[in-house]
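Researcher: Please translate sequence to structure tokens.
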Amino acid sequence: MTREKSGFINVDELVQQVSLDQVAAYYGVALPEMKRIGKEVRMKCFLACGRSEETGDRALAIQVDHPAKIWRCHHYGCGRGGNLVSLCDFLKPGENADGKPRGERFKEILADLRAIALGEVREVVEAPAPEKEETPKSKPVQNMPLARSDNERARELINLDEKLVVDVANMNPKAASYFRRRPFLTPEVCRRWRMGYLSRDTGGDKRGGTMRGQIVYPMLSGDGEVLTWFGRDPAYEEKHTQWDQAGREGREPEKFHFVKGFRRGIELFGQHRLGEEGFRDKTKNLGLVVVEGPNDVIRLDCLGVPAVGLCSNTVTKEQVQKLADFTWDACGGQVTLMLDCDPEGESGAKQALWELAQVCRPRLAWSWEMHGGKFAGKQPESLAEEEWEELRLFLTRGVA
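Model: Translation complete:
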């Protein structure tokens, strides 16, 4: 009979002996409020994954009764997931391995789990408090426009839209299908918003390499300068369906791709329009409409609706401040929330209502139950003209 090697640790058995509460307590993390939904518990994400903005209160889903404690983060653009070992990687002090610990990091986490199973308490060595000294106030965090970047390759991306394809006849089948399902994305609209499809075959021009094969959008500053370009996978729905049918093993497919290091939580898609002539007047009766993604903003613009996008289904404090500053000056602090009318969008809307209500006057354009449930499952980008007209009448009722 084969004998196990000395020091062998059965990871599966070890994980089964440890609870989420024990792990959180061991690493000194306070768990947020939990909501039981079927086999899962949902809560605000508390993992140290480098995220700069808060999540909704149901972003993190954990199967606490599962032997491996399977988890998944549903925060917009995240999709990380795994088992208790990967969760520990995001909680243990030190540089994480993005939920895939190997080598010494893996061994250290297993040692932690064994200590937790034995009821040991982690010794926390606090560094001596530094002597107080006056330090200059730090400058607010900002994204540098590409034109002023120290990186020459970044500066070359200012006019990346010149390479983007906007005629479906010149796109590959998946990209062409993406645009045909969104008929409002005409070549004229694409050029106005400086977005389009970046072909994988770009000849000798290597600009925008990480965005090839994606639908590309610009994030512009309030002054209209290009801060970054980001991509949307035209095959995302297909990939996500396959991942879902395969039991959600591995990392969730990426819907939007942002350049590493870009702080999207301090920007609003479409913020360059806030200072345009006539934009402010459109907000007088409706307020400023806040949506999730870039296509939502573009579709509403085609319908004459003043909107900006969070590029997320939750709002950050920086975005809240921008919205408050503009709306109090333009339309009496009125913000109209129109996040996707689905469970994730509604969860984000609750978080946004709480944050915005502290500094301005937010309201909902729709919800799963409002309007007799007519708009359940809808996204702003899928609105027909007559549907928007119904919403407009509801939002402006009683307004002279």
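Researcher: Any highlights?
Model: The chain has three domains: 11-117, 146-262, 271-395.
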